[in-house]
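Subject: for your reference before the review

Hello V.,

The reviewers asked for a structural picture of the protein, and I figured it would be easier to keep everything in one thread rather than splitting it across files. Below is the amino acid sequence we used in the manuscript, unchanged from the supplementary table.
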Amino acid sequence: MSATKKRILIHDYSGHPFQVQLSRQLAKNGHDVLHLYSASFQTPHGKLTVQDDDEKTFMVRGIDLGVPFQKYQFVKRRSQEITYGKLLAKEIKAYKPDIVISGNTPLDAQKIALESSHRLGAKFFFWVQDVQGIAIKKILQQKLSFVGGLIGQFYTNLEKQLLKKSDKVILISEDFKEVMAQWSVPEDKLAVIENWAPLEDMPSLEKDNAWSQQHKLTDKFTFLYSGTLGLKHNPDLLLQIALKYQDRTDVQVVVVSEGLGADWLKEQIEVHQLSNLKTLGFQDFADLPKVLASSDVLIAILEPDAGVFSVPSKVLSYMCAGRALLLAVPQENLAARLVAKHEMGLVVSPEDTNSFVEAADQLLESQDKLGDYAGQARAYAETTFNIETIAQRFENLFPS
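And here is what came back from the structure prediction:
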């Protein structure tokens, strides 16, 4: 073990795969670890149950509101997020950790968690996966104009306060440092640890597998999107690919998602009578390697407003899968820069639908290049996503 044994509570609201991998590794390194997540939030999950080979010092538990989460109803959502924060605070109080690391957490809940941690004398690490205040302000200004701007400013101010009060602020990109400086977050609190994907759980498989056979994809050129499809994503881009190839029986668009965007696509399938667009709900994490391997091209989408302040974790899982990538994300985004720099596929602006469809066509018509893109994506993952090294970076932040 490379750090003094600690009692650590890691809270990842979304329940994504790589955060719980970190918790498991920290337990392997000799720490006591409780991993918490929201059991009510609709998003793809990682391995969120105790496995036979897990350390005895590792626990994982979901926090359940007991009612459906109202993601798109602001007033109800805020009330639920405050309730969630109180449930999280109870867990913190009961576990009595030395360190709390909390990410992907709604700001109202994050505030309660921070205050609860400090009351116990625990160090609080704010794991910044997204700069939420800026995103909330942009979205609500569009929806509610002046009132939305005021609400957004409230959350921007709240986020600033929480960052300043945190003992450490873990950023997933150097790009976030600029706004931290603008908000006067002390530089000595900042650490940059880029996100990753759990390589050990994400082998690169053959396209002809049980999942592709089940969904009749083995003989189709398949564009596949997997993950959340919400307010930061434009599902029309996926529809446009399906419309372009609606008369080709050898091309399929598959969307593995749930929620607002997936529901809209289901409606469009009926409207346009599309047989080449398939929507499926979230799949079991154990099946994800087969799901991604069933593709020829993996797609990620991010709205222009996201800029540098959101790095789609799905892209990192895609790299593990060893497939060509097609991204419609802002050029300045870290994911876009990585894919372009390491030649893993094509990147276009999310505002340019024509270029997106043209890029899809370029990949379809230049299939001899797909192997190179895929190989470079997998090579980057194998070189970069070493969980032992990553866990050491977190341990280096722990107080002695």
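For the response letter, the relevant points are probably these. The chain has 14 helices and 13 strands. Residues 238 and 253 are 7 Å apart (CA to CA).

Happy to draft the paragraph if you're swamped.

O.
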